[in-house]
Q: What sequence folds into this?
């Protein structure tokens, strides 16, 4: 479990606090999406989960270890992996498999064990076929999956992804998201996904909405996106499926904004049009 | 346009020279340079030339590549020749005189020796970079310099810096291309004007490039921290360098060749 309690953090004295009393928990096996407009503190929060940033006040606990415990630093970082937005700036080595091995080399794992684990990690993320290539010959989506492989080679229990699809084309985005989902569903890794894409957030088990350094709303995608006006007031969008129900609702038709999957929405519209 | 630049001029292949352990290759190259300067007689020099040529043939590097790497040396060679030819004085009578300068036999000999040495030096070291990928080279250097850790020399950090530099060269080249296009689209004149104008036009390219490089460095550092990076202590490596039979054979060949080149000193009169 990752547990943040009354988290307070500011980058400088003068500016407003980036995190202003955040409470957050992630249970094992969950798929959580974190939403919020730019500058709401979601990236800052993410960097607290593996002790890249340390809280000014409050605590962050990972499996019972406080992130302020120096002697547990590498245990925490091994348990909580992190993937960032720009894949180019996270790849260290000049060959894909060497990069995937980077974390394990740092952890001092035996070479034969490194081999086994990176092969497994590359299989899971579908980049095995590029293992001998140079990273700059890959597409953005492929590079991002290499970065994810580099993280899951550590066998973390949690993986925090900070807008991993923001720089990718639709095809790369789809594949990266598919990889993330399979890590959660098939391998039981807890996923904390920070995103601006509502269709990605809609696939999560739970959504956490942040604004001005605070968690303002929490709930299942249905609960969150059915409150269209609230979501819009936080300068966020709702998925198109909720949007259509909401707009039709404004015209006086009674449709549920809870139908957020495309199938549900289509069924609802079908019923509505039929009579 | 900039994308075509190749760094290190690696020429991939699968010859015994390519497969040779990078540590041995680096050491052998250094030894070759040393023996080149110990060989002062005609036979030794001819053998040195023969050895490097034989290695090129074994490594299947086209001689075209060799020509390419030697070409930039021509001005240096000409410079050396002129200096040595005119300023070395011998014991006997001068061979001939040009205006006030006399040329001696010793001068000519010295020139020949120097030319052979420079050419062999460049061919030998080029062979190292042609047959070894940059990453192998870094790896080999890191392991060879490991003993320097005793005197607190940051060996691992140096190697890490080299790896990251190699990794980011293509990324930064691509970015430079983009910035050039962006500045051109805003009317920057990069290809025209006087020399000073062109140098000045580089400023709006370099500044964004540097800013972005710093941002990248910052993000990369965070990503490395996330992956438990904490310097070279207790670090293992995925690829272990192992001494194979190929390495042993190649080392033996080199030792014999160097021995023969060195032995010529005792049997033939030196040219200089």
A:
């Amino acid at each position: 479990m990752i547990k943040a309690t009354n988290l307070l953090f500011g980058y400088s004295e003068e500016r407003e606090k980036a995190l202003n009393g955040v409470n957050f928990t992630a249970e094992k096996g969950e798929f959580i999406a974190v939403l919020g407009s730019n500058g709401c503190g979601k990236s800052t929060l993410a960097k607290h989960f593996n002790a890249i940033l340390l809280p000014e006040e409050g605590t962050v606990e990972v499996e019972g270890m406080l992130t302020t415990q120096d002697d547990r630093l590498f245990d925490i970082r091994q348990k909580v992996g992190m993937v960032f937005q720009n894949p180019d700036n996270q790849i260290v080595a000049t060959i894909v498999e060497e990069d995937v091995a980077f974390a394990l080399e740092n952890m001092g794992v035996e070479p034969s064990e490194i081999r086994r684990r990176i092969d497994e990690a590359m299989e899971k993320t579908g980049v095995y076929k590029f293992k001998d290539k140079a990273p700059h010959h890959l597409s953005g989506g492929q590079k991002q999956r290499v970065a994810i492989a580099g993280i899951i080679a550590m066998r973390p229990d949690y993986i925090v992804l900070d807008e991993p699809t923001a720089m990718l084309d639709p095809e790369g985005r789809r594949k990266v998201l598919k990889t993330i989902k399979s890590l959660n569903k098939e391998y039981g890794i807890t996923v904390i996904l920070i995103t601006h894409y509502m269709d990605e957030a809609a696939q999560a088990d739970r959504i956490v909405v942040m604004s001005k350094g605070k968690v303002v709303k929490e709930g299942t995608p249905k609960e969150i996106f059915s409150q269209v006006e609230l979501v819009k007031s936080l300068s966020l969008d709702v998925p198109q499926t909720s949007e259509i129900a909401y707009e039709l609702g404004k015209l006086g038709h009674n449709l549920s904004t809870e139908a957020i999957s495309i199938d549900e929405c289509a069924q609802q519209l079908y019923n509505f049009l039929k009579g | 346009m900039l994308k075509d630049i190749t760094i290190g001029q690696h020429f991939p292949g699968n010859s015994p020279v390519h497969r040779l352990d990078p540590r041995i290759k680096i050491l052998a190259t250094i030894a070759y340079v040393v023996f080149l300067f110990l060989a002062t007689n005609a036979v030794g020099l001819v053998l040195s030339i023969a050895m490097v040529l034989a290695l090129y043939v074994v490594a299947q590097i086209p001689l075209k590549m060799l020509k390419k790497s030697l070409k930039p040396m021509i001005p240096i060679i000409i410079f050396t020749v002129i200096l040595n030819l005119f300023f070395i004085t011998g014991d006997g009578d001068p061979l001939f005189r040009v205006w006030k300068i006399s040329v001696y036999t010793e001068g000519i000999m010295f020139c020949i020796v120097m030319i052979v040495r420079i050419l062999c030096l460049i061919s030998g070291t080029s062979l190292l970079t042609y047959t070894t990928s940059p990453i192998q080279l870094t790896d080999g250097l890191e392991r060879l310099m490991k003993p320097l850790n005793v005197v607190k020399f940051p060996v691992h950090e140096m190697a890490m810096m080299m790896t990251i530099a190699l990794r980011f060269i293509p990324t930064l080249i691509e970015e430079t291309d983009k910035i050039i296009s962006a500045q051109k689209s805003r009317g920057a004149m990069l290809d025209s004007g006087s020399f000073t104008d062109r140098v000045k036009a580089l400023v709006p390219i370099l500044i964004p490039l540097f800013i972005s490089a710093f941002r990248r460095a910052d993000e990369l550092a965070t990503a490395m921290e996330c992956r438990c990076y904490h310097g070279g202590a207790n670090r293992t490596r995925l690829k272990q360098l192992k001494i194979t039979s190929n390495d042993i054979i190649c080392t033996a060949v080199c030792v014999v060749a160097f021995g023969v080149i060195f032995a010529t000193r005792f049997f033939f009169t030196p040219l200089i």
User: Anything to note?
Assistant: Residues 154-226 of chain B form one domain. Confidence is low (pLDDT under 50) at residues 3-7 of chain B.
